[in-house]
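Minutes, methods subgroup
Present: GH (chair), OT, SY

1. OT presented the first of two proteins processed in the latest run. Sequence and structure tokens recorded below as shown on screen.
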Amino acid sequence: MQGRSSCNLCGPVYKPLIFMEKSVLPPIPAKRYFTIGEVSDLCGVKPHVLRYWEQEFTQLRPMKRRGNRRYYQHHEVLMIRRIRDLLYDQGFTISGARNKLQELVQSERDRRRAAGDALIDIDLPDEDGVESDLQDDAQAVADTSLLSLEASGSSLDLLRKELLQIRDLLSESR
């Protein structure tokens, strides 16, 4: 299909109309931390774009370790997918996406307060923009511990390795 526009110098110009299909993103694996390369593949966004989005969206704050290497958590991958959808699929500007994301966060916060949820969702930043996810992490570890009692030996080993990685990450961030 051709679109027609006019140029003051050369008359009518025909441009091909391009219809973008919504890309199907791969499922997010059940991991605690993702590198920037993994997030790039999971979200269909180049790493330099992810670094730029960190500057534009205050809610997006990956953990940084040695050499400023970024490690994203599951909720941040979901947020990046949401940002990608707003920018690429729905056609928002950066400013518009930032405002829409703020509205979504506020409406989710209001919904949770109305429902009387005691825990703070790790996806929602505090008033100062810093996420407080310590209660959620403690609850997740407690839930995981209860589930792991019923798990096989290999699952316990995998859980132990993940908990050691979390401990190492937390000790380095201090």
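2. SY then presented the second protein from the same run.
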Amino acid sequence: MEQDSGRPSGEDPVEALLSLEDLSRATGLHPAQIETFVQFGLLEPAAGAVREMFAVAAVDRLRIITRLRRDLGVNLAGVAAIMEMRDRMEDLQREIEHLRRLLGVDR
């Protein structure tokens, strides 16, 4: 039995967008702080958005950034380096999974 997600049929949650204000409410961060992260390259607005709109995945990304800053005391340059390495690792993992599917290899 399919569970109703509360979204209109056909709407992909990955492609849902949040305004800066919505993102601020979802993360508890001030909009100016989010804009600082955007200016520093830690977060990117959704491509093709008319105004600053963000993918829903930005909520999780901001939670990671916040944890690095507040809990671990990492400066913005350090956060940028960590996030870049994290992004590269995720890209490599997706590539490995793609190659495994092509080769028909199970884990």
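Chair's summary of item 2: The beta strands are 17-19, 53-55.
Next meeting: continue with the remaining queue.
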